[in-house]
Amino acid sequence: MHFHDLHSTTAKMNGGRKKITLTAKVCLAAALTLAPMAALAQTETPMTFAPGADNANEFAKRVVIDHLVPRIYAVGVITEDSADRLRAYAHQRRLSHAKIVLDSPGGSLIGGLRLGMAIRDLEFDTEVGTEAWNEDNHAASICASACAYAFAGGVSRYYGLNSRIGVHQFAGSGAGSLRAGQEVSALVVNYLHDMGVDTTAFAVASRATPDDMTWLDEPAALQLGLANNGTLPTIAEIKISEGAPYLRLEQTRREVTGRALLMCGTKGYLLGVGVVTDAETTTSRAKEVTRAYIEIDHRPFGVMTGPGSIQPSGDVIWVTRGVTKAEIQRLVGARDLDVWTENGGPMRWGAGIDLTKVQPQVASFVANCMPTGSL
Q1: Average model confidence (pLDDT) across the chain
Q2: 232: DSSP letter
Q3: Which of 88, 102, 104, 280 has the lowest CB atom count within 10 Å?
Q4: How would you classify the pairing of strands 163-167 and 214-216?
Q5: What is the model's pTM?
C-alpha cells in the first residue's frame, strides 16, 4: 500500500504559527528601545545588508556549510526601517531563500521585532557571525539586545563559531511609559512564543538592566529555543482522509526532513515513515534500495529486503508497515522514530523524528484511535 499524505481537514496540535502584527498603538511605544550598550556600540551606523566577498573563504561557506544558500551579512545598529531595507534587498535580488548573518550591538526594539518578522515572512535562516571568520581568523561577533529578537525570526537559527548572544531589559522614557512598557512586554512575549522560542527568554532578559547584558552561551540559547542549529521542533497534526483520522508527524533538520503518518483502521494500525526529498532523488534512491526498516528508540522493526521494502511516492520515500499492539506500545512514550534504507554499501540513508515533545499527542491519538483490545 502506498502511503499518501492527503491535505484535508486538519487539527493542528503543535507547531502552528500565526501572523504577528505590530499595532499602531503599540508602535507609539517606540520610545521603548533596546539601545546598544555604549561599550559595544562603537558605531551608530544603521544596519546594512550585503553579500559576502567573492573569495575562496566565502565560496567554501556557501558550498560546504550552507549548501549553496546565499549569505546576507547584516551589520550595524538596527533601526525601525531595517526590515523594509531587508525586504527591498531580497526583492531586488529575487532571493527565495537566504541566511542572514547578524553582527549587531542592538538598536530599536520595534525595529528588531519588525526585522525578525520580515526574516520569518521571507522564510530565511539566521546566524550570529561575521564575514571575517575563517579557519585562521575566528573573528568575534555579537548579536545583542534588539538583535536577539531579530535573530529569533530565522526559521533555522545557528549559534555561530566564536559568537555571543546577549539580552537585557528595554528602557522607557516619557509620559505613559509604564503603560507602554506593559504593552510592549506582552508584544515581546507573544512574539517569542510565535517564533518558537521559550518565553522564559523574556524573563532571562529582564534579569539584566538596560545598562547591563546577560550573555547566553550556546547550550543556554539552545535550551531556550532561541537557537536551534537547523533542527526545528516536531510538528504533530491530526488529519482526515476519506473520513478516517491519521496522525502526521514531521521534523525538519538542517540536512533532511522526516515525516511519519500513523493511521488506524478496523484491523489495526498502519505506520509510514518517510524521507522527504525531491522527485528526482526519490526515483534514483528507490532504484538502489536493498533493505529498509523503521526504528523506534533505535530498535528496528519491519525489516524487509528488495525493492518492495519501500514505497516511493512523489518527493517522499516511504517505509510503510503494519504495526502490532506490541510495537504501538513501544511507540507511545518513545523518544525517537527513525527510518533507514540501505543499498548494500557501508552507509545507510534516512531521517529521524524527535518525539520527546509530542509524546502526549501520540499517546492521545493511539488511545482514541480504536477501542482497547481491538488489535
Answers
A1: 83
A2: P
A3: 280
A4: antiparallel
A5: 0.76
